[in-house]
Design brief:
Helix 3 runs parallel beside helix 5. With about 180 residues, the chain is mainly alpha-helical. Helix content is about 50%, strand content about 10%. It has a single domain, classed as Jann2411-like fold. It holds the Pfam family ABATE.
């Protein structure tokens, strides 16, 4: 494990959220899809289950995608992460749950709006990445036909392809076929 469990989980959750509209259309189109996403990553706390909540998560998704796109510019990325921390009024506190007995941070009250809780968690995970000097782990898939994002948690930062569309396998097969055709 490169980062704490909750940081890695939150970074993965951010990438999945961003990719909900980057691969094969909109996958977060309704409240049911939002609930499935939230449940798959164990998000707790207040849920309003209305169109405004879904739209606020869509805006957060766009904002996070923008951070991935400027990850090669540390100063700009830091500015965006600081802005997200400020906008969410992140206030860290330690907690643990029966299903997750390790101590971890929560950054907003369970009563705060969903986007605010999510944004604070995402911003703190990104801050951990920045503090570790690993902002370059935020990547856009290297496949020419893919816009998905990924968090490269490999030991040597060698990951290039997302896991949303089998991009790595497709690129390796294409390279193999190219080599075979040149013989």
């Amino acid at each position: 494990m490169i980062f704490s469990h909750d940081t890695e989980l939150t970074l993965r959750a951010a990438a999945v959220l961003i990719n909900t509209d980057r691969v094969d259309g909109e996958h977060l189109a309704d409240l049911h899809a939002l609930d499935e996403y939230l449940d798959s990553f164990g998000w707790t706390g207040r849920r309003d289950h209305d169109a405004a909540e879904l739209e606020s998560v869509h805006r957060l998704r766009t904002r996070l995608g923008g951070i991935w796109e400027i990850a090669d510019d540390e100063a700009r990325a830091v500015g965006q992460v600081n802005a997200l921390l400020a906008d969410t009024r992140a206030a860290p506190w330690l907690t643990r749950h029966p299903e997750m007995p390790e101590w971890h941070l929560h950054l907003a009250s369970v009563h705060d709006p969903l986007w605010q809780r999510m944004g604070a968690e995402f911003a703190m995970a990104l801050a951990d990445l920045i503090r570790a000097g690993d902002l370059r782990r935020l990547k856009i898939c290297a496949a020419p036909d893919c816009e998905a994002v990924l968090v490269d948690l490999s030991r040597n930062r060698s990951g290039k392809f997302c896991d949303t569309g089998n991009c790595g396998n497709r690129q390796h097969v294409a390279a193999y076929r190219e080599r075979r055709s040149n013989k």
